[in-house]
Task: structure prediction
Amino acid sequence: AQKVTQAQTEISVVEKEDVTLDCVYETRDTTYYLFWYKQPPSGELVFLIRRNSFDEQNEISGRYSWNFQKSTSSFNFTITASQVVDSAVYFCALSENSGYSTLTFGKGTMLLVSP
Amino acid sequence: DAGITQSPRHKVTETGTPVTLRCHQTENHRYMYWYRQDPGHGLRLIHYSYGVKDTDKGEVSDGYSVSRSKTEDFLLTLESATSSQTSVYFCATNRDSNQPQHFGDGTRLSIL
Result:
């Protein structure tokens, strides 16, 4: 069965600090997809990134970057120079490429960025 | 976004009453999902649909049923609500099963 672990329940940083959110996954499939979602205090869920298991290139989007390492089954998310607007709950999720693929979410990491 | 509307947005009801939540999408997406979000549990899949009248159970389906008679609507029913079903419910859709899911704004359901 697939599983996603986000060991950090809460992280507090001061604005402009860099912060890394950890995500470790378990799957028996060789083809799978990893996702990150953001849930700001307003409550909606916002898609950030999708990565397939065959693409281990790191990705950067502005202040956001993602490090995918199959060897350690990790898909970590780094925010550089954090801002107050980054305060949110961040979810990592996994879907396997079998049948009707459904998402399994981690329990989320709450990030609080203080001014 | 996928134009997903959930209704109602908030509901308070009593134990034992039936409750139906509606998810409506305007993007003609094939796949639709219902999740519940609870503190300490993240999002957990209740039921999903892979086409009209095609549905299947998720991780936490006990006490819930769903129906999808049209592409655009996916209904979640609590036949006899219990206090343990107090939660925030999210609907999501995607065109293909491994594409990103896009979420509605959620329904906050309180069962007293």
